[in-house]
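hiii, so i know i said id send this last week but things got crazy w the move. better late than never?? heres the sequnce for the chain we talked about at the cafe, plus the structure i predicted for it. fair warning i was half asleep when i ran it
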Amino acid sequence: MKRFRKFKRLISSIRYSIGKIIGPIWYRFFGYKHHIIKTSLTPAVWYDTDTRILYAVMDTVKWYVDNDMMDIWTEEAQEEELKRVKEEYDGESQTQQIAQLQHCFEADQIALEIAAWWENYPNREKEIAEEDNYRKTDVLEEKLYEEEQEMLIKAIKYRNTMWS
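okay and structure toks below
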């Protein structure tokens, strides 16, 4: 029995050692690549860091809405869920459940808002590029920058709600 345990430990340590060597190679070529953020940036010689951050965050939110977001809560579904919670829970637990649900509803709406804004982003850039009046271009660029900041802040604020 004692020899069997030693043998089992030896096999486990060998497997672990081989796994440490083979694992990274295996996942590099065949495994999931969730550690890589694919953006909608076109290939170019250089992008500034602020642009890469914007695209990474916004494309990740867009990917979440398109792929990971379970269900989009309609108003009727929200009402039904709140009604169910009111029937099933009492007192403090009911209050907590309702607050948690309302936070989820709000977070889903924020994610949808960010994704919709991001889908329209290329149109906004095109509008700025096609503008002939430099003074108006400056105003449009400043407005777009403020919107970018607002959406980035929302994405960061609600990032802990974007899980599947």
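btw The CA atoms of residues 4 and 92 lie 54 Å apart. thought thatd interest u
miss u guys!!
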